[in-house]
Structures are given as C-alpha cells and as structure tokens.
Amino acid sequence: MAGLGDGGPLRRRDLLRQLSAGLPLHALGAGLLFWPGRAAAASPATDPRWRLDQAEWKRRLPPAAFSVLRQEGTERPFSSPIEHEKRRGTYLCAGCRLPLFSSAAKFDSGTGWPSFWQPLQDAVVTKLDFKLIVPRSEYHCRRCGGHQGHVFGDGPPPTGKRYCNNGVALVFLPG
Q: What is the pTM of this model?
C-alpha cells in the first residue's frame, strides 16, 4: 500500500493519524474511525471484588476514564499527558490500580497514545476485536476487566509488540 503523497509505504498508525487529525473527541467516539456502536461493557473482572455494576463504575471513574475502561471507548490521540511521561515508575490500571506496565517498557511510537513493548507478567488479558471489521487484539486489565487498548505487531525489539494504551485508562506511579 503506497503512502499518501510520498509514494512510500503507509503504516496503519500513519493512516490513523492522518484520518484522525483535527477530528473532535465526540466524532471519534461516535464511530467515524471505528465500527459504529461501542461495546456495552469491558471484559468481565477475574477478581470477584471488582465485579461492579455500571452505576458503581460510573460513580468511581471520571467520565473519560469510564468511557474507555467500561465502554471500550478511545481517547483522542495526542491528548494524554501520560504519553509524554519520562520518569521511572509503574503504570497502573485507572480502574483498580493493578500494575500493568513498567516505564522501562515504554517507548514513543509516534501514534499519539502511550505505548509499551510488553506488559508486566499476568497484568493483561486479550480478546479479538472486530470493531474495525479487520480483527485486532484488544487487551484489558486482568483484575477488573477495564479496556486499556490494542496490541499490534509493529513495536520495537525485543518483543516486536506495541501495546497502544489509552492514557485515561492509566495512572502513573513514580519511583
């Protein structure tokens, strides 16, 4: 597939960046880039203490975090301060505070979302997502089931993976 205007290859992240440039957050949430309609809820929690109903999640989370974590929404690219976080530390699930990623695995993917080449051991679970028609691997917090993002095969060594995370789904703990 040729790139737009330059004749070079067009990577999926470049296409998404070009398509989403300038679109308001409500347009993204309405499904202009995504298959119309969002999932009704995130994955089921594996820990019974985190099997909360939607009303309780809505009470606990800010609206943007609720949209991503519990309704599998997507935040606008380049909007998260966590994308620019450079300190050493740990990234926790914003829903239940389970540690998900080490800062040692963070890298700048150029996509506009915080990206990691691997999660912490036993931190996330994956499932197949068909919202863009083409299947993608979606990942969620193992403990509370909160939607985090998608994993792609275009990351750096040593894994070659890119865990593309929504910043509102994370809390950074320095140290």
A: 0.75
